[in-house]
Sequence to fold (238 residues):
Amino acid sequence: MESLVKVELVGKTVDVTLTGKLDAIKAPELMEGFKKLIGMEIDKIIFRASDLEYISSAGLRTIIFAKQKIGMDAEIFFEGAQEAVLEVIQMSGLDNFLTISEKV
Amino acid sequence: MNTIELPAIMDNLEEGIDFILAGIEQAGVDQKMLFQLRLACEEVIVNVINYAYPDSKGSMQISYDISDNELEVVVSDSGVHFNPINKEDPDLSIPLEDRKIGGLGIFLVRNIMDQVEYSREDGRNILTMRKVLK
Fold:
């Protein structure tokens, strides 16, 4: 599967769709997408992860970056992630700070 | 040991990982373990690419061996002295907004692998990690 990241701003919601791998090669592209949103009023960040096959620490850092730099007060949703991806999120302790849900 | 030597640049990350994974796949591990081993390999190779040669270009040597069902991966470089495992684990209880953006990679590697060792020999950083394949 080709790796793709898509970032859309809908009102005060950042809608992120992840496909394939979010690794050290792909994460910088997502980081650039987030940097454009710094300073905007954001109350929700949704990661749509049902087609995300793989994530590494570079990908996890983009989630932390999103929280710290664009959504300090925003709720962060992580939707539809596959079990292997969820395990990495849990291993790194990020699950305590994300609202994780099944595919919607 | 099966060994490959590549310029330590991000364009070669995939090739370095796939070199190791091709060997592991032959050993017949399940998808979950393959995912985790890909992750561990990415983290140690990315460390070399990002930190070994801050002011110059250089190469990385990637080796692996599987014997008695144990995988051993060795990643080495001749760059600046850098011990990635000489770091405190990140505090996972700290809320995301206060989390330092770093240290996660090697933390994941330690979680996934059975053993992770670093040594500096003859001007080389040598990172060795092992895991029993199930």
